[in-house]
Each structure stands twice: as structure tokens, then as C-alpha cells.
Amino acid sequence: MLNLIGSAAIVASLLGALAVAVTGIVGGFTRKPGLIRAARYGTYFVFAAMTTAVVTMEVALLTHDFSVSYVARVGSRETPDYYTAISLWSSLEGSILFWGWILAAYGALVAFVNRRSDSRLVPFAEGVMGIVGLFFFGLLTGPANPFGEVFPVPANGPGPNPLLQNHPLMGLHPPMLYLGYVGLTVPFAFAIGALLSGKLDEEWIRSTRRWTVAAWAFLSVGIVAGGWWSYEVLGWGGYWAWDPVENASFLPWLTATAFLHSVMVQERRGMLRTWNLSLIIGTFLLTLFGTFLTRSGILDSVHAFTEGVIGPLFLGFIALVMVSSLVLIAWRADRLHAPGSLDAVVSRESTFILNNLLFVAFTFTVLLGTTFPLIVEAVNGNRVSVGPPYFNMVSVPLGVLLLFLMGVGPALPWRRTTPEKLKRSFLVPSIVGIVTLLFALLVGTRDIWPLVTFGFAGFVMTTVVEEFRKGISARRRIAGVPAPRALGQILVRNNRRYGGYIVHAGIVVIVVALAISGSQRFEREVTLRRGESMLLGDYGIRFDELWAEEQAQRFVVGSTFTVFRKGSEAGVMQPRMNYYPNSQQPIATPAVRCFNSIDVRVSRGRRVGVCTGKEDLYLTLMAFDDQEGAHATVRAIVNPAVPWLWFGGMIVALGAILAVMPQRGGRRPAVSAVDAEARERPAEHPEAAVPATV
Amino acid sequence: MSKSKKVWAGLGVLAIAGAIALLIAGGLSSNVVYFLTPSELRAELAERGNEIVDQPLRLGGQVKPGSLNWNAEALDLQFVVQDSVGEVPVRSTGAPPSMFKEGIGVVVEGRYTREGVFESTNLMVKHSNEYEPPHGDKPAEMYESLIKSDR
User: Fold this and answer.
1) A390 vs B27: CB contact, 8 Å cut-off?
2) According to the 3-state scheme, what is the secondary structure of A295-358?
3) Given this model, what pLDDT does residue B128 score?
4) Residue of chain B minimizing CA distance to A552
5) Do strands B69-71 and B76-82 pair parallel, antiparallel, or not at all (unpaired)?
6) How far apart are CA A655 and CA A499, in angstroms?
7) pLDDT (tens digit, 9 = 90+) per residue, A247-261?
């Protein structure tokens, strides 16, 4: 029964997407109101149909209807309901279903938000999203059908991949990543819409700015959450291994970040038209490529790839998108001539261009490292791997340069500047940067890259603080309000700009945490008898006992360690190993704990210890005596600054939320006029230019 | 922007691109790790001699039955990786992955040293991600004695 509903819903989505593609594109060219309306209602219909499919799948999962092929593949009666519900994205068919649903949701939201708009781009964008939908819904009707019929109906299933049912973060990381990945379809669709309609000014960028920022934020949170997940589950004490799957999420992030910056140059100065179109098309291609990498089996070997049908289909779709985009750009080449041009080498736009070059180079190096083994195997049959040393070697210098530009860019005015202004903008940040570097040297940092990173981090943070200080004082002068109110006002009035600075601050926190945790972690692996202790850094770690627990879905072997710090007992940690029936290999649950805390008073008489993030103590149970429980082998790692990674991710998310808020006055023409005026004038404090009338 | 400035800006961009290209080329040439089987490693050693000694490699094969020697106290693990023709002694520090046993397929990351032993830095057990029905003992039964000793 559920098979039938689900399959029917997917076929309906496919037909709906076909209708949207045709009415959207034809309606875009002919401007017939009937067709435009049909495209809009079509996207609503597709969303309704896909929602039906996803709800049907969730019902099938939660009621353990093993006649549905996907449930028979990933379901089991013993799996807790939370993990059963999120096993929607634990395997190929379900994740494409989830992907298609998010695409349909974005499509419907785009149509709804723009329902009263008479923009020429909207029907085209709906049509393009319809075409993308055709591909994914097509996969769902054929090669990736999650609603296949299983007969005879099995009594039980194997349950989801053990790695994916071992930590609650699995409920956050994939949806965030997908919201980011699929969200980038929106600016792509409008870009293609701009090419199709020939309306190649800044409209497609303005109408998708908030979509892009939101997708970027989801992607960022998804990547950080993925690192957190692997830190909490994989047991090696790291959070990023330059694994192809990780790289697949990082590649579109890099180009999307470049895009977020380069569109500002086009908005302000009318430059980089072709570049921006290419960048967003490239970003969309990389999201497809990332899905292809992780879903086609090509990573195991190029030979495994030819066995599946999904891989070649993806490759075909990627080629189709690439070729048709190139043809469109060539077709519109005459309209892509930039009205603006670069005035001076030292200006904000030139740092943005440099930033873009570096981001694209970064993308290229990661892409090359990720695909290099495939290229070598295809060329001469040798099996090679490219490990973290390559990626670290190339990404650290690029990342450090980008960090530096992050401080330079915002402090430079558009168009051109004078030596006096330069000195005024950079004197204090440079001093702070040098002092930070010297301080790091003094406390014992000797490696060159971490030192440079800390210096630049001090520099960038100061420019961010300076921007806030300048904004607040300008606001105080104009509106005559006290500083806290002025801060609130600039955040609301100029949310895009200050949200961006908060994101920058979050990135600095993350980069510093990366530099510290990457260069200063230390570990020890020891076999301990009961009651025996080991020393690591500030910690004494005593092995107390082994224990075991049989749970419905798994069998847990746990160990108990007592941790001593500064001579007194600080707490108990219990790293575990989990044995799942569908996996030969046990899945570790390392114990992670932050012992450096400060007391914060939350209310009268109540104090709560808050982790300072100085370091985590990370224990993984590596091996144990399975007969007597007399000894256990434990890997203990001191991971400095790792909590600051997650904290930095939250700052980035906050800044992005602020930047994505509707701008005061939204797209009212009055504000565009102010924008246009600001564009002509190299204003140092545009917030002062916004009329103070409320 | 004047013509000479444009030329300089162009040169600057070229210089950056060149530096990045060098970085990538250097990074790839020194960090590509070859995957070899024991007999391939033997053949390479015979052919190129010391050239591949102390180079990062991945060695893939089967843990030779009867060769496993694990000292939990000293965290010292020794075994032999073999394929149908050749074998290579491997030495590793640290607890082996839980699945590790004689006869299983492994990939060992490390270097072949002058002493004729492959020093492992990373030990991976080859196992299938696909579902296989549990065979043999249930883990619960396997560790029953452990629970008993604990209570």
C-alpha cells in the first residue's frame, strides 16, 4: 500500500517537474500570464507530491513496513525511533528522496516569495529548478527507487549503517549539508534565468542574495557539524581527514564563498559579470560532482564505478549542465560586457578579485588532490592515494593568505584610496597583529605557519572590531544615541555588512582553533591493568573496570576511567565500543570531556561550570581483555582548542542569520536609490549615508 | 587604471598563479602514496633497490596465518602480510583495529625500512560496508565471560 502511494507521489512529482520546466521556460520567453501562473502552481504541486512521498517513507520506516525496499534495506525493529526516522538519509535511495524533497521545497518557496513579482527571471528560474527536479525525480522513479516492492516481506531488517546510528549529530549534519547543497540551486537557477532572458544586469544577484547567504550558512554549519560528528564518533581524535567525502562538501563551499564576495563587486561596480555567472554555475556543478563522488562508488575504484547506473547518469547530467551553460554564456557574450572597470590596484574590489583567485585556486588544489588517484588509475592503472600531507601542504599557505585578505578587504574603500587613509586603517591592526605574533612566540609557539596564522588573526580581529567601532561612533554622531543603542541600530540597519563581519570573526576563531589543535595536540596509547594509571599532560588517568551492556539494537562494551587533575579527582570518563549485528567491525564511542571550566553565576546561589575550550581530553577504548576484563588499551589525546571550532561555527551561523534578515526597507526603490548613490560615492561609512528617518 | 598598472597587475596575478602551480606540483610529487602488494613490493625492491626504501607506501594483502604476534603490554604488533607469491614482515605500534585477525585482508600505511621490515603508521582492516548477516557467535555470547567477571 505504502509502496503504491510513494511511487505514485514520485511519478506525480516527475510529471509536475516536467510541466514546471516547460511552462516556466516557455512562459519566460512568451510572457504569457497563464503559463507563468501554471509554472508557479506547478512548483506548489511538486512540493505537495514530494512531501507526500517523504511522509509516506517516514511512515513506512517508523511502522517497520518491510515490504518497502528502502525500509527492508535500512530499517530494523530494534533501532531506536530517532535513528529510524533519520535513516531517511542513511542510504542512497533515501538520501536522493530527501534531496528531491528539499529541492521541491526551495522551488515552492522561490515561487511563493516571488508570487507578486513581475520579474522576467522568476519563470525561468522555476523552469530551471524544474529541469534539475526532472533529473532527481527521474532517478527516484528508476535506478534509485526507494519504494520498490519486497516479496516475501522480511520479518526484520538489518538497520541503518552502524556509523550513522551511533550519534545524535547524524540528525543535524546531513540535513544542514543538503539544505546548503540544494539551496545553491536557487542562485544557479536565477543565473541561468538571467542568461535565458538576456536580462544580465545585477537583478539576478540582488534577488538571490539572501538565498545564497542562507545556503552558504547551511553548508557551513553542515561542514562544521560533520567535523564534530566525526570527532565524536570515529575515535581517532581528529575532525577533518581530507577524506573525499569531506572534500566533496568543502569544494562548493569554497566557490560559494568566492561568489558571495565577487557579487558585491558586481553590485557596486558592475564588473565581473561573466565571472559571477561562471562561479555560480561552477558551484552548482561541484554540488552535483560531490554527490556523484559520494554516491557512485567511484571512490573505491574507477572500475567499481562502471557497475552502477547512478554514476554514469550523474556524469551525464553534469556534462549536460556544463555544456548548456557554456553555450548560453557564449550566446549572450555580447551583453556580458562590464560597464565598470578597475580604478586602482589598492582598492576593495581588487582585494575581492584576489580573494576570488585564491578561492578558485584552493578549489582547484582540493579537486585535483581528490581526483588524482582516479586520474592515475585511469591513465596507467597504478593505485595511488593522496593523503592529508598534500592537502595540508597546499591549503595552509592559501588559507593563511585568505585570512590576511579578510583583514585587508573590509578596511579598504571601494575604487581608490590615499596613503594617509591606508595608514589610518591599518596602523592599529598591524600593531595588534605583531603583538599577537610576539605573544605566541613568547608562550612557546615555534612553527612558522601557526605563528603567521596567529599574527594575521590578531590583525583581522582588530579590523573587525575597528569596523564596529567606526560604525557605532558614526551612528552616535548622527542619531545622538548611546553606544549600545547605536550598536543595535547599525546591526539592524546594516545587517548585511555587520553580519558579514560577525561571520569573519567566527572564521577567525575557527582558523585559530585549527592552527592550535593541528599543531599542539599530543597523545599516548597505553595498556593498563585494573587500578593502574597513566599520565598525560595535566591528567592522571586510572583504569577502573570494564563493563558490558546488552541493548536492543547493539551490544556495548564499556570501560570506566577516573581522571585526576592537579592532584584531585576531576571526573569519570567511559569510552565504549558498540557491536552492531550488521557490522563486523565495532563502532567506537570515544569519551570527550573538557575539564577547564570557569564558574558562571546563572542566578543567585547557582553557578554553572562553563568550558573555556582550552582543551578536550579524548579517550578511545582501543582493545580490551575479553576474557577476564583485566586490562584495557586506551588511546588518550589532549586536543587543545577543539571546542572553539564548534563555537566558531556557531558565531558564523549567527552572523549569517543576521546577514540574511530582510534589509530594512527591503527592495523598496528608495533604498536602491541610496544604494546607487553610495555606489557612486566612495563612502567610508555607508551606514552614515542611510537617512536617519524611521 | 593606466596601461602600465594593468601590466603590473597582470604580472602579479601570473606570479601568484605560478606560485600556486609550483605548490601543487611539489605537494603532489612528494605526497602521492603508491599502493603495492607484497609481491609488487618485492619486485620493486629488486628492480629499484633502495629508491623505495623509506618512501611512504601502502601495502595491501592478507595477514599470514600463524604470523601474528601481539604484545598488549608493550603495544607491539608484528605480523606478515602476504599475497599468493610474496610476503613482507610488518611491525606496528599500538592496538590493532578490533577486527584484526589472522587471515584477514589489511592495508598497511607506512615505510619499508632498511632493516627489511615494513614499519606501519596506520593499519586498516578491509571489510565490506554492505550488510552481511551475522555469522558465528553473537557478540553477547562472545563476551559473556567478560560480563561475568565484572559482576
Assistant:
1) yes
2) HCCCCCCHHHHCCCCHHHHHHHHHHHHHHHHHHHHHHCHHHCCCCCCCCCCCCHHHHHHHHHHH
3) 47
4) B140
5) antiparallel
6) 4
7) 999 999 999 999 999
The gap between the terminal CA atoms of chain B, to the nearest Å, is 82
Per-residue burial over A569-582, b = 16 or more CB atoms within 10 Å of its CB, e = otherwise: ebeebebbbbbbbb
Which of A365, A376, A523, A580 to mutate: most B Cβ within 10 Å?
A365
User: What radius of gyration do chain B's Cα atoms show?
Assistant: 24
- Chain A, residues 623-642, CB within 8 A of chain B, namely 623-629, 631, 633, 635
Interface probe with B: pick from A301, A350, A384, A449, most Cβ of B within 10 Å:
A384
User: Alpha-carbon distance A103 to A95, whole Å?
Assistant: 12
Q: Which one of B17, B97, B145 has the shortest CB-CB distance to A627?
A: B145
How far, in Å, CA of A543 to CA of B37, rounded? 39
Measured between beta carbons, which residues in chain A are less than 8 angstroms from residue B142?
626
| Residue A468 · residue A498 · CB < 8 Å | yes
Q: Contact A619/B132 with Cβ under 8 angstroms?
A: no
Q: Determine the residue among B4, B32, B41, B148 to mutate to test chain A binding: the one whose Cβ has the most chain A Cβ atoms within 10 Å.
A: B32
Sign of torsion, CA A336 A342 A345 A347? Answer: negative
Tell me whether residues B149 and A344 touch, CB distance under 8 A: no
Q: End-to-end alpha-carbon separation of chain A, Å?
A: 58
Return the axis-axis angle of helices A310-331 and A273-295, rounded to nearest 10°: 170
Residue A634, H or E segment: strand A631-640
The alpha-carbon gap from B134 to the nearest alpha carbon of chain A, in Å, equals: 6
Phi, psi of A620 (to 5 degrees): -120, 130
C-alpha cell at A447: 612553527
DSSP state of B18: H
pLDDT in tens, A225-237: 999 998 998 888 8
The strand pair at A522-529 and A631-640 is best described as: antiparallel
Contact (Cβ atoms closer than 8 angstroms) between residue A196 and residue A25:
yes
Give CA separation, A29 vs A15, A56, A120, A198, B34, in Å.
21, 37, 9, 10, 55
Q: Which tens digit of pLDDT belongs to each residue from A499-540?
A: 999 999 999 999 999 999 988 899 999 999 999 999 998 999
Which H helix or E strand runs over B115?
none
Q: Which of A474, A465, A499 is nearest to A664 (CA)?
A: A499
Cis peptide before B133 (omega within 30 of 0): no
**Residue B124, exposed/middle/buried by CB under 10 A (0-12, 13-18, 19+)?**
middle
Q: What is the dihedral of CA A533, A535, A536, A542, to 10 degrees?
A: 20
Distance, in Å, from the CA atom of A124 to the CA atom of A25, rounded to the nearest integer, reads: 5
Count CB neighbours of A474 within 10 A. 18
DSSP state of B76: E
Task: Give residue-wise pLDDT tens across range A15-70.
Answer: 999 999 999 999 999 999 999 999 999 999 999 999 999 999 999 999 999 999 99
Q: CA A662 to CA A666: how far, in whole Å?
A: 6
Q: Would the ipTM clear 0.90, i.e. be above it?
A: no
Backbone region of residue A539 per phi and psi (left: phi > 0; alpha: psi in -120 to 50; beta: other values): beta
CA distance A313 to A525: 46
pLDDT digit string (tens) for A565-612?
Answer: 988 999 999 999 998 887 777 888 999 999 988 888 877 778 888 888
| Rounded Cα distance, B145 and A271, in Å | 73
